[in-house]
Amino acid sequence: MTAGLPPTTASEVDAPIWQPSSDLMAHKARSPRQLAWRRFRRNQLAILALGVISALAVIAILAPLIAPFDPTEVDRKAFGKPPSLEHLLGTDRSGRDVLSRLMHGARVSLSVGVVAVTIYLVIGITLGSLAGYRRGLTDAIIGRVTDTVMSFPGLIIILAVVPIVGRSPLNIMIVIGLLNWPAVTRLVRGEFLSLREREFTLAARGIGARDRRIILRHILPNVTGPLVVLASFGMAEAMIVEAGLSVLGLGIQPPDASWGGDLQAATDVGVLTQKPWLWMAPGAAIAIAVLSINFIGDGLRDALDPRAIVGRR
Amino acid sequence: MTLLSVRDLVVRFRTQENTIHAVNGVSFDLEVGETVGLVGESGCGKSVTSLAITRLLPTPVGRIEGGDILFDGRSLLRLSEAEMRAIRGREIAMVFQDPLTSLNPVLTIGSQMIEGMVAHEGLSTADARTRAVELLGMVGIADGHKRINAYPHQLSGGMRQRVMIAMALSLRPKLLIADEPTTALDVTIQAQVIDLIKELTRRSGTAALLITHDLGVVADMTQRTCVMYAGRIVETATTSELYARPRHPYTVGLLNSISRIDQEPRDLRPIEGAPPDGSRLATGCPFAPRCAWRLPVCWSDDPTLAAEDRDAPVITTGPAASHLAACHNPVRADEVEVGRPQRPGFVAAPNPALVRAATS
Amino acid sequence: MLRFITRRLLIAVPILLGVTIVTFGFANLAPGDPLSALVRPGSDIKGQDIERLKEALGLNKPVHERYVTWLGQIARGNLGVEIVGGGSIAKALTKRIPNTIKLMGTALTISVVMGVLLGVLSAFRQHSKLDKAMTVVVISGISLPPYLLAILAIYFLAVVPFQLFGIKLLPAGGLEDPVSTLPPLIDELWHLILPALVLAFAGTATFLRYTRASVLEVMRQDHVTTARSKGLAERRVRARHVLRNALLPVVTVLGLSLPSLIVGAIFVETLFSWPGVGQYAIEATREHDYPAIMAVGLLTSVVIIVSNLITDVTYAFVDPRIRVR
């Protein structure tokens, strides 16, 4: 359009007209994170689950201090006794207090979850970012590697590796962690590919921001949502795998305390039928912990999904 | 003869987090064979109105909470779902904005065109197929007998929209509701589709309700136009009258924000500010925050549609329809082109709440 | 379409090769060489005899040559011998695979049928009591690990009825009861029920979840509104416009579950003493029998790659957007 004809009246020289109406004034701006937190808070089940996991974490951390007995200590007066005042959850066949073992077992299970997830998050994010941002040959190579690892049955690899590297808890954590990063890599790569071309990235590049800054400040914050959901489900999975290995005798075994290892007692028919407290306690612990983590993951996913519209009845 | 009469329609969306007031008392009429445009920015409630007429609002979130919709003398809101289904497709048909997502990607266009005819008119599949090929020819798609077996993704955007139109007109409805039919298309194709709709509705005497934000399309297609803002109709007139002599400040702002072939080239001015998001019901006129003509009463009283001559009888349809505007201080003839009040000493009234806050 | 299949095949080949390389690498990483493991300590085989045997068996050749030889053997169906007992791994697996397929096949069928059915119903009746109940099922299904479920199932459905009422409601394990009076087919079915149900629980939860999500997603799409605006009966809208589109992704989930037909039941087989591939793998691990473990790993990887291929091709066939031009 041809540039402005000179204003013909004084009132055409503009004083701004726009003024917020009173209802608009009361409108507080909330960041997406705050909105997501509000939505999460409304999910009672998830909040309950969060409480349960926090309690478990506290127990796990404080176990050495608050457990009534040392988990490996043998009470010669009580071999395989049912719950009593002294041993609130009974004792196992070697005379060890079940409750204390449960508490120490929490340390093992929760740390397996945390360590394994941390490992594969680190690997996955790094590889995914490189693949998604650099594209080209880097992406192709990482893609092939990811596909190959994904074609491997994770459990079999674990079975193959554990006899080689031994059964220490740390090794098991590392092995589990090294197997599940493909999913993270795919997620991160996908996000990078789509966000890379979005306007705000192009704008950042336009003003000359360096690559690393762009990745850290602009792209990664957008990925954290789905990543957190993936991490929580991954943690539950890692705990299940570790406990499963221990149940079959391939993981952490007595006298070391672990939920799965103690659950192994149930494979003995005598124990299964006559001393239910021995295996019901660790079984319940596993179930409660994993259920809680999954509820939290579900709640996070619902809270972070911007498209979810829930109608009021 | 009035075909459609919407009276004081109120639609709300209730989610767990808040309530959206999408439509706040909309009234308009449509005559047999008339084409009326419903114009407004995104979010003003025009699409919601069209979905409400056919009762296709997403339940349970969306609810019609007030008013009535009369079609052919019957109240649509009182019909059972089965009765409503008999009307959909057969008497009121819809064409939507994005033909790629509005057509089922895994079914051929033929089968999608046929199912309506088989369901409503009881035609055999073979007869329906023949008719579908005819319809494809009618909307300008050559080789209909071959194209009928194509999948939506095999056709161009323009062709897909023609298929949608053919599908909509296949049962010879009395009313065609077109929701942004050209928005997703290239400009050159837009003109073709507009002409197609005009031609077909004229030939078959079908009334049309055209919903769009594009003032150019409205000028080309409609006999009358209703302007919507924040869930209300703020002005309604015959299209030529509206473009020549708008009275509501919002309409004036809209017309000044586009380039017009019948005027001298000049700067385009957008309207300052943004429309309300619908989560709160405004006190007073919803356009007040952005209005250069506002009086103190505009901040507290929501105006109703009225003609310039308040004593004249109100005619709702046809070429002699009344020109109504919902405004306490309508724009005068000499102010239209300038886009600002031309009254010496006039200042747009500030928000009394802000004034109170500042002086307390 | 043909190009699509060829491309997928070509991509699968390097992955397959990669898998074999990794498997071979692992097998060689195992401490000790196969020969020394077979020699009993204290026997009077002399060192140089061992060396000559190694030479004869080609164990001294360079890595890449041994890899090619090994690959050739695999292609001929020779999966090596077990460290313990020296039996042919291929023969052992051939005996066990049918058992696992019987178990997992039953479980998978139940899972798909129940999962899809309940998923569709839940989605159509969102927020109803059924839907809420199904959410609980899904969460328990993915949270209660199969071994825990197995233990609970054995306890409550096999042990307790026997202890309390003297009834042998369901067997606590094994493939068959040699002294049973039932015809062998019925006996095997009776033994199949419990482990299959345990496995089907988690499987149903998975299919339920994906089906429900898919149906809900499709119901939100525009073409469903279009179908309704044509005045079609809701039943027709659901069958033709919702389900057809929504069940497409479920095909993918089904395809991805195929590998589990071979190795899906490791824990359950072991706990129920079901002689299948999974139990074999666990026994091999306990005995540190690397050739056996790696053979199972290789077998599973191949099944995974092949079933991925089949899934992709089937999906391409079923979805017109990929099939036609």
Explain how this protein is built:
The complex is a heterotrimer of chains A (313), B (360) and C (325). Chain A contains 13 helices and no strands. Chain A has 313 residues and is mainly α. In chain A, helix 4 runs parallel beside helix 13. The N terminus and C terminus of chain A are likely disordered. Chain B has 12 helices and 12 strands. Chain B has an 8-stranded mixed sheet with strand order 6-7-8-3-9-10-12-11, with helices on both faces. Chain B has a 4-stranded antiparallel sheet with strand order 2-1-4-5, covered by helices on one side. The mean pLDDT of chain B is 89. Chain C starts with a helix and ends with a helix. In chain C, helix 5 crosses helix 8, helix 5 packs antiparallel against helix 10 and helix 9 runs antiparallel to helix 10. Chain C is flat. In chain C, 76% of the residues lie in helices and 0% in strands. The longest helix of chain C is centred in the N-terminal third of the chain and has 36 residues. Chains A and C meet through helix 5, helix 6, helix 10, helix 12 and helix 13 of A and helix 1, helix 6, helix 7, helix 12 and helix 13 of C.
SSE layout and pairing:
The complex is a heterotrimer of chains A (313), B (360) and C (325).
Chain A: H1 22-25, H2 32-41, H3 44-66, H4 98-134, H5 136-150, H6 154-165, H7 169-179, H8 181-196, H9 199-206, H10 211-247, H11 259-263, H12 269-274, H13 276-304
Chain B: E1 2-14, E2 19-31, E3 35-39, H1 46-53, E4 62-71, E5 74-75, H2 81-87, E6 92-95, H3 99-102, H4 109-121, H5 125-138, H6 144-147, H7 157-169, E7 175-179, H8 187-204, E8 207-212, H9 215-221, E9 224-229, E10 232-238, H10 239-244, H11 249-256, E11 306-307, E12 324-325, H12 352-359
Helix pairs in contact in B: 4-5, 4-7, 5-7, 7-8
Chain C: H1 2-29, H2 34-38, H3 47-56, H4 63-75, H5 89-124, H6 129-143, H7 146-165, H8 184-219, H9 222-229, H10 234-257, H11 260-263, H12 266-271, H13 277-286, H14 290-318, H15 320-323
Helix pairs in contact in C: 1-14, 5-6, 5-8, 5-10, 6-8, 7-8, 8-10, 9-10, 10-14, 13-14
